[in-house]
Write a structure and sequence with these properties.
Chain B: It holds the Pfam family Oxidored_q2. The structure holds two protein chains of two kinds. By secondary structure, chain A is mainly α. Chain A has 22 helices and two strands. By secondary structure, chain B is mainly alpha-helical. Classes of the chains: A mainly alpha, B mainly alpha. Chains A and B meet through helix 5, helix 6, helix 12 and helix 22 of A and helix 1, helix 2, helix 3 and helix 4 of B.
Chain lengths: 534, 119
Amino acid sequence: MLYLLVIGPILAGIISILFSKKDTRLFIVAAQIVQFIYALRIFIQVRTDDTIFNFMSNVPEGIAITLMADIISSVFILLTTTIFLMMIIYAFHKDYFTTQFGFLFLVLQGLIIALFLSTDLFNIFVLLEVSTVVVAILIMINKEKQAIYDGMIYFFVNVIGTAFLLFGIGMLYRTTGLLDIRAISQVLPQLEDPRAVMLPFAFMMTTLSLKTAVVPLFSWLPKAHGTPSAPPVVSAILSGLFIKTGVYMFIRFSAMFEPVINVQEVFFLIGFITSIFGFIMAMGQNDIKMILAYSTVSQIGLIMIGLNMGSEIAYWGALFHVVSHALFKSTLFLAAGQVYHQYGTRDIRQMRGVLKAMPLTGFAIIFGILGVTGAPLFNGSISKYMISYGSYRPIVQFGLNLINLGTITYFFKFATILFGKDNRAEEAKPPKEDLLSELLVFIMGGLILVTGIYGPTSMNVLFGYEVAVFSAEYFEKGIVYALMIVAAAGIYNGIIKQGGLLNRISHIELTFNGVITSMTGFFLFMATYLYFVL
Amino acid sequence: MKPLDFITGEIVGILLFFIGLYGLMTKKTIVKTIMSMSIMESGIFLFYITINYTVGSVPPIGQAQEAAFVDPVPSALMITAIVIGIGVTAIGLTMFMHYKQKHGITHWSRNRDQTGSDH
């Protein structure tokens, strides 16, 4: 009964908007709890029994629209329901939590879950299109000028990107006559000429690269995720969860094409470039949300590296990084939301002494930073360790360490908000944030530590993959980490504080036409590579 | 072979797609962006409804089997896609109208103002 997971939240949203005169927040929370329990049940069922299939309207397999929950998708669903439950509780006392907001939020949850479950190509297209609309409205929910501009760019770029996917599906259907991912992957090896699916592959990969925001298609991401006036829960969902739909589809689609087309090296390289580009851009930002948005670009690059390294441990490490990134990035976005609401500015140079002013949020930020930079015993370290374990090539090791050094450096800049003297006048301080949201941010921060300390266990529970992490090598990485903090402090004081060139680089951005041109360029590159190199 | 045989629905569909893409790459007016998007989508629709079509086949209605049936799936998909296309165009136009009436802007501007770093 997987479809209940999809229509459940949407139905709850419709009911809440029907009774919009009453306060429906408690009902929404209750619906989220039920949803979470049901997802947990599905998760356990997949672990104990096997992959669950749902064939719609009792049509035979291969023709029917299929929902599938296997090991990977059940983890993603559990993650989705957990994070959404957290977000709803966080937003419970916030003034932006109106009925309309709750409705859109619940619909988005249904769409994300449907994307994780669906194996039908055309369904995936429809879901992507609808979720683009919902996300665009959520971004501009405050109707502020910059938010509408950002929302429009997000909307048009993604609609055009999805058109590429639709074209690709059409070409694939022309060759195979099928729309189901699993059925197509069974048919593709029998293809006489693999060249027939190269063009659809290039079309589809353009969309997926846009959705995962890799170089050169990431310029919509900071705009959408770092929109100044978007509520922090929206940014947290977009950065923590919604971007993962792209990663998930990348996993599925590359598995589908694997028998005929294998372009791991290209995406491995693209992952590296994305990651390095992401941290360079993040270093020069002063807007607290923009730092986190560019950090997402960098971390997604890291996930792509792990997925395309071609080793099993790195692959599962990347999947675990999806989970840990969802936890720490949503924690950081929520905490950032608390902080900039309190301080009345998003400029990190004007925020000081967060740890003293709001201790719970401050500790959550510390946990989040330690998680994202991969400090020992936090969940980021487990996944980063597994990714780096996948290859012993010196150049790869050097690259991964460089990326981690970059991450530590810009989070060093981020961490300056925690300490120092609070310069605000006493009467300028707004009333304190409500205790519920403070506590929730802290709990989410705690989750980062818990999934880290029990890293191998959570790895085994979530993905059923046994790994021994806590070895001598792991603690060696801890020493490297300590050295890197020293280096990052040096880089921060020596280069970043000066601004100059770095500041100018980080404010470069593409116009709308530039984004579309780079999309076309990426498509042409992909097609040329497939036809002439492969 | 007549020269016009090259002009099939698929070829025209692909051409329309790239004409729309060209418009999106070069035009800075938001209305023209929406128009180019529609052209691009029409290209896809045309491509879909002509794939796997053989001359002389009949629609899959009724029981008569004097000729081969046309594959109905692409047409069914395109009905959905056309509805989605209309919805997306309407939402795009709504956003644009709101933006223009409130802020008087009709073009994609060069740069986003760096709100966070300046104030």
